[in-house]
Amino acid sequence: MLALVAAAIVLATVPVYANETEITVGVYHFPPIASVEHNGEPTGLLGDLLHELEQANPTVSFRVFHTSPKRRYLDFDAGLYDVIFFESPDWGWTERDVDITRPILADEELYVALKKPGRDDSFFDDLQTRSIVAISGYHYGFTGYETDNSVLEQKFDIEFSDSHSRNIKLIKADRPSVAEVAIVSHSYLQRHLENHPEDWGTLLISDEPDQRYELSIIARKNGAASSGEMLQLLAPLIENGRYRQLVEKRGLKLPAGFLTSFEAP
Fold first, then answer.
1. Which residue of 75, 82, 153, 226 sits 20 to 30 Å from the alpha carbon of 119, by its own alpha carbon?
2. pLDDT tens for residues 113-151?
3. Domain boundaries, given as residue ranges, for the chain
4. CB 190 within 8 A of CB 251
5. Is residue 40 packed enough to be buried (19+ CB in 10 Å), middle (13-18) or exposed (0-12)?
């Protein structure tokens, strides 16, 4: 998938720990990991994390740059940023000359349909027979991580949108010709059901995920900041437990063994 929100970072040419280092953070809509408000400010885990990173590293400040799920690669190739948070290497990054940290975040994506009499988990067995609604630019397991809309439209009966919220509304509208199956992250679905508990009786949720992903920080080789330097910025929040609190607040998880094996470079 998408596809990790996720965040892209442009750094000044000065070292990470130099005085008055400004880091420009690119953000695309990937809730609850990251969203962008109308005023351009980031929210979600990323917004929380940027605030905490500034508190833990007084010589670093952050400025937001708005990108999109599809445009994040073009922006990277154009040299508009050097580091991106919360991305899976499987989402097109292994094809590029990048450095990748150990995973720092984990989540999964589930299939969602409308509950109906006699409908069970087998409804998700053959997605090529279903009308699917997905988010443009996200990477999905059932597509083999293909993100070209025209290619996917040839293989599947698929419609694209820009939000999980809209996709869930389409499922609940019971229009099988438009949307029978949506793909929604576990963390987003958990928050949705907390806010709309009536949907526990409305939505059929798959037992098995479309994909499980572990998300890393990815840095351009020989770029302005290495992946190791970004982990150094994060290290104080890991050591004092604050990063774990931020992650769990958003219904997300740390990778298995992350806390016991973490060592800052």
1. 153
2. 999 999 999 999 999 999 999 999 999 999 999 999 999
3. 7-105+212-261, 109-211
4. yes
5. exposed
Closest CA to 45 of 55, 57, 32, 56: 32
Measured in whole angstroms, how far is the alpha carbon of residue 91 from the centre of its chain? 11
User: Distance between CA 133 and CA 120 in Å, rounded?
Assistant: 19
76 CB contacts (<8 Å, ≥6 apart)? 8, 84, 96, 220
The CATH architecture of the domain made up of 109-211 is: 3-Layer(aba) Sandwich (3.40)
CATH topology of domain 7-105+212-261: D-Maltodextrin-Binding Protein; domain 2 (3.40.190)
Q: How far apart are CA 106 and CA 124, in angstroms?
A: 23
